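Lab notebook, page 48
Experiment: co-folding of the full assembly
Goal: obtain a model of how the components sit together before planning crosslinking
Operator: M.T.
Materials (sequences as entered):
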Amino acid sequence: MANFVRHGRKVRARYQLHAFVRTHAHGVHHTHTHLALCSDGAAQVVAIGRNYKLHAEELQNPVPAEPFWFLKPPSAYVLPGSPIVIPDGVDSIHHEVELGVIISRQCKNVSERQAFDNVAGYCVALDMTARCWQDKAKKKGLPWTAAKGFDTSLPVGSFIPASLVRDPMALTLWCRVNGEQRQRGTTADMLFSIPQLIARVSQIHTLEEGDLLLTGTPAGVGPVVSGDSIEIGIEELKTSATFRVQ
Ligand code: MG
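Observation: model returned without errors.
Model output:
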């Protein structure tokens, strides 16, 4: 049974990544990179919390002294063209635009100096959050899995190969809702850099080829409701993606 579950999870994860590839691969270089990622993708999604000072403060949370994270399941992935579905019992969910980092190979105990050797590329992503459930969980000291891991809570944009990104620590992330700007921030403001995050997470658990690391959201998070349109992008990489909230 354990083997079956593990196998099923991997197959599903591969499918998700493959869909990601097929939808977004426009060039030969992109296609090859994606296919390599799909060959044995476990598609673990590691999401960092409170990695921008102003965002921690806007939700009256303390600024963390060290990175912390939670996991999202593979069924959270959404590709452009498919809707974000608000879970039953929730009126609105919050947008959190984030830089996604895609891991290139299995790695453990990675040093900060070698962290970027384990990065295949980047994408823009949304860490959709049922804030009402998260607030309840925080008060009770319970995990955030329901609030952060519901199906369709992870819309992702195109894969951008690392070779095309000169400085991932100097990228402008933006998010518009129904055409109105809600978030705009720079990855230069991360409290913990991408190398620090990869080093810390990989100390605790092995990262696999195809895994996605969400690096936290800048300030400006807020609610969206059914019928809204969310557009996210990374300015310097000229990449964007639009998602409809159902
Ligand atoms: Mg987040």
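Interpretation: Residues 43 and 184 are 27 Å apart (CA to CA).
Next step: discuss with group before ordering constructs.
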